[in-house]
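pipeline/complex-builder :: batch 7 item 3
reading input block
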Amino acid sequence: MAITRPISPRRTVIQAAATAFANSGFPALKMCPYPGLNCYACPLASVACPLGSLQNFFVLRQIPYALTGLFLAVGAAFGRAVCGWVCPFGFLQDILARIGPRRKRLRTQRGSWLRYVVLVGVAGLATYAVGAPLFCKLCPAGTLQAGIPQVILRPGLRGLIGALYWAKLAILAAFFVAALLVKRPFCRFVCPLGAIYSPFNRISLMQLSVDRTACTQCNACKHVCPVDLCVYQDPGSDSCIRCLECTRCPAVKVSWRGKAVSEPATLTQ
Amino acid sequence: MRRNALLALIAVGVALMVLGGLRGDYWTILANARTICLSCIGIE
């Protein structure tokens, strides 16, 4: 089989709408954690960052019941689909991937375990031990959405800029360049929020399945995948962001634990 | 994992979100989100 269905603008429209909603400048929903990575220090943020909030609970030595419930409910229903459909930083990386050279580098999943290290080590244990949100201090999404605009809008902050600010800018610049050359480098190797949703891919209601009799292992799925996955090798991979681009191939379909949604197209000989 | 078990897991998640609301989790999130996070900006 091969990719037979044309590119649909549906996912891009949903990503743009989700980004606009999360940064609509309407602060009434700021008590609600957003499922994707969206910095709440952004001047236009209308929702709370779940990772920043989670770290804040660790700093306060409190159990994050509501956030645990959010991750559990969203993860069990959709797996990592949040990354593919509503995460603003993922959307930005998708755009950068289109701008950069067509032939991308690092088309492997090696090193994807790093995001679990960042989640447990930096956003978890180190944050709890130090009593400060350590991942926020490094987060490139925070630099882009809060660091740059807040310093422009609030002149009083400019006198407080130090080495950390320049380090954050350097990290953001590095990820910008990397996202031009590698598909979604932050999501694949660093994002601790993605690491929270990743294990749900194997058990979630939303599943991908490959018709082994129709699949010719032509690797067209890997070519269109935003994280360079061969879906026929492992449809439940923890790196999959459930964007459903691979379902443009008739051999791949999405199902809801037994209830098929997108049936494979009729095979012609 | 069976479909019913997954639906139960989602229900537990929703219940935890409600429980968190009763314990004041959303007010804690709001209080944190309202302050300008200097860590996010990159100021020590």
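note: Chain B has one domain: 3-41.
queue -> next item
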